[in-house]
Amino acid sequence: MAGFPFTIAATDGKARTGVLATPRGDIRTPAFMPVGTAGTVKALTVEQVAATGADILLGNTYHLMLRPTAERVQRLGGLHRFMRWDKPILTDSGGFQVMSLSKIAKVTEDTVTFQSHIDGSRHSLSPERSMEIQADLLGSDIVMQLDELVALPATPQRAADAMRRSARWGQRSKNAFGERDRQNLFGIQQGGLDHALRQESADRLREIGFDGYAIGGLAVGEGHQAMCEVLDFAPGMLPADRPRYLMGVGKPIDLVEAVYRGVDMFDCVLPTRSGRHGQAWTWEGAINLKNARFAEDDSPLDFTSAVSASRDYSKAYLHHLVKSQEILGQVLLSWHNLAFFQVLMSEMRAAIAAGTMTAFRDAFLARQRPSGRDTSA
Amino acid sequence: MAGFPFTIAATDGKARTGVLATPRGDIRTPAFMPVGTAGTVKALTVEQVAATGADILLGNTYHLMLRPTAERVQRLGGLHRFMRWDKPILTDSGGFQVMSLSKIAKVTEDTVTFQSHIDGSRHSLSPERSMEIQADLLGSDIVMQLDELVALPATPQRAADAMRRSARWGQRSKNAFGERDRQNLFGIQQGGLDHALRQESADRLREIGFDGYAIGGLAVGEGHQAMCEVLDFAPGMLPADRPRYLMGVGKPIDLVEAVYRGVDMFDCVLPTRSGRHGQAWTWEGAINLKNARFAEDDSPLDFTSAVSASRDYSKAYLHHLVKSQEILGQVLLSWHNLAFFQVLMSEMRAAIAAGTMTAFRDAFLARQRPSGRDTSA
What gap in Å lies between CA B213 and CA B185, rounded to an integer? Predict the structure, then answer.
């Protein structure tokens, strides 16, 4: 496998910045991917998402295969056309949400059988079916192998078993995916918090050969410190010349620490989810717009922003919308948060190119409130 | 009182088209005003609202006086600046929602005392206080007198009493409003379905002298036919050289029949409310996007529209959003409906100018499904 051209323009310590060039457009790395769960980045139009500077979205195979179904998306021209996003889309394998949302019926070496959380209907997902859904029916640009996840804490044996099954499913995913010019397949490293398991997983993936490599099984409850400790070694186990993607991460502080340790791609529902709950992300951490101290604050969230939500509306107005449970409040805060996350990535790309990533990280950490939370909320 | 310059460019039967020229911009009549209840047209940015062609918004005094309070809006620079809408705003008096939403404590000749539906706090609204809120604190361009409403059906005596009290409150509203160059005050005709009461009300209002005249007390449950019968005579009782505003109306069929009978201005929550509930308005009536027949309908709601929501998204995608209860579905359908209502008004202005309003009305009525509803829903 060759994979989309991936050019690393600069490195700074372990951090790297570059471009992954896909037929649907360049992805500037380190990149943050907004999550378009069910064919929509929640509450936002694709024009609003594009205005934040996002180069790529993530779509959830589990949600889409249940509703409107992958076959229907294909009949309607594929996921890009269906949701009107013509830049790249990465889809997950469906495995994570099968484990977290559905009622699992049975996991065998061959397949996962489960019941829909929407209507209880029965479905199954195998590596081969996941490839068919992602690559052929949805038409994803970056396809993820199916992997098996275990909740942390897990026994060493359970973590090892899941990692090895994931590697076998990775081989089956690759066999089913085949060779494609306009789509890439990423493998997923597992192994929990264990150095030896992470190394074995990376070795197995490298042997199979993927277009990119994800770090899976983190941000599942282990905490920021434990995650950083795994990130001290896990990215370096993966091929340096291909993109490294940390799945489901995270808070701005997680993104900074992971980029610092050599990760290139991220996705997380946090900016849109916290926006729907009245929170705005800032350089000091998250603030809750419902807080009374914003009731007559006439300043915008970020007067330097390219995005209207951040630049043009007063905090007092946003406070009013949140207090009044107005949909526009959810729209504007989701939009602002995505814009903030993109500015954060842009600032990190610039810092790496300038060789100042360590100083950027130090300055960023110094500005965060102790808990990273709005202590006055 | 002189009022904003109102130029009637053409008439066709009783229908008129023209321009009400305000310091914040021209209002093309017949005009439909989207409702920005609590300082936001629900689910939409002001840019999205402006893109539909709306020349003026309506704000609700009752909602704003309770939250964030009119005094706070004033401290934040007035309603236009607060919500970022720099074109004209008409505010209602607060009376209608005091009657319909709050727990009324007491109505006297002097004032209405009521409890907030939000937190039970006590407030009062008099003609003088309504003027202060609308004209001085919110900074409305078109201010409505306080009136007293009665639910239909009402006894003739009750309707007459409320009409006469409304006239007295109209005089007090005018006394409190005074003379203003950059703001207008509209009186409100009452009198229920009764010709003589409507005439007496119009005579009293004309004697007081307002900048514009609203027809109140309709669209409160009397039905389309009864409303049309009142509209056969009520608009003609009001001064022909000033704008006539039918409050709280309505469905497209109501708008067509009222314009045909000489009404110039309208407001209604219908387009945004029905959009939030999955309905889209079309030339054939309302359709429910949740209906399974749209599941694979790849066509947009209106490929000729200037608005993205109507033109760019397939009905299949909107169906998916509605079924999945996605906020974006509420956004896009609210946006489409407002755009449709504005196109309807624009088509009527063109028909009046061309002298073809009768043909337009006949063609419009012929295209409506029998009930004006989606019979397959």
Answer: 9
Q: Is the ipTM, as predicted for this complex, more than 0.90?
A: yes
Q: d(Cα B120, Cα B166) in Å, to the nearest integer?
A: 26
pLDDT of B104 > 50? The answer is: yes
Torsion over CA: B277, B281, B284, B290 (sign): negative
Interface of B with A (CB under 8 A): 38-40, 42-45, 47, 67-68, 72, 75-77, 82-84, 276, 295-296, 298, 308, 312-314, 316-317, 319-321, 323-324, 326-328, 330-332
Mean pLDDT of chain B: 95
Residue pair A270/A33 in contact by the 8 Å Cβ criterion: no
Identify the CA nearest to B79 among candidates B135, B22, B129: B135
Q: What are the Cα distances from residue B84, in Å, to B34, B45, B89, B141?
A: 15, 9, 11, 15
pLDDT digits (tens, 9 = 90+) for A206-260: 999 999 999 999 998 899 999 999 999 999 999 999 999 999 999 999 999 999 9
CA dihedral B302→B15→B22→B234, nearest 10 degrees, is -120
* Contact criterion met (CB below 8 Å) for B74 and B136: yes
Respond yes or no on whether the N-terminal peptide bond of residue A243 is cis (omega within 30° of 0).
Answer: no
Paired tokens of A104: 């699992």
Of A43, A276, A320, the CB nearest to B68: A320
Alpha-helical regions (H) of A209-326: 224-231, 252-260, 270-276, 308-311, 315-323
Catalytic residue, from B55, B92, B211, B254: name it: B92
Rounded Cα gap, residues A60 and A224, in angstroms: 25
Write out pLDDT tens, residues B159-198.
999 999 999 999 999 999 999 999 999 999 999 999 999 9
Amino acid at A357: M
Phi-psi region of B134 (alpha: psi -120 to 50; beta: other; left: phi over 0): alpha
Nearest by Cα to A103 from A66, A60, A131, A147: A66
| Residues contacting residue A137 through CB under 8 Å, at least 6 positions apart | A70, A71, A73, A74, A78
**Sheet of B103-107: strands edge to edge?**
B103-107, B112-115, B122-125
Contact between A29 and A349 (Cβ < 8 Å): yes
Please, what sign has the CA dihedral across residues B361, B363, B365, B367? negative
Tell me which architecture the domain covering A6-268 has in CATH.
Alpha-Beta Barrel (3.20)
How high is the pLDDT of residue B371?
53
Crossing angle of helices A327-354 and A315-323, rounded to 10°: 130
Domain ranges (residues) in chain A: 6-268, 275-367
pTM over 0.90: yes
For range A261-268, the mean pLDDT: 98
Sorting pLDDT into bands at 50, 70 and 90, what band is A370?
Answer: low
Please give the structure tokens belonging to residue B75. Answer: 């401290």
H/E run at residue A20: strand A15-22
Contacts of B326 in chain A (CB under 8 A): 38, 40, 42
Is B92 a known active-site residue?
Answer: yes
A79 in Cβ contact with A68 (< 8 Å): no
Q: Inform me whether the pLDDT recorded for A43 exceeds 80.
A: yes
With a CB cutoff of 8 Å and minimum separation 6, the contacts of A284 are A367, A368, A369
| DSSP 8-class letter at B77 | T
Backbone angles phi, psi at A56, to 5 degrees: -155, 145
CA torsion angle A24 A306 A331 A218 (round to 10): 60
Under DSSP, the state recorded for A29 is E
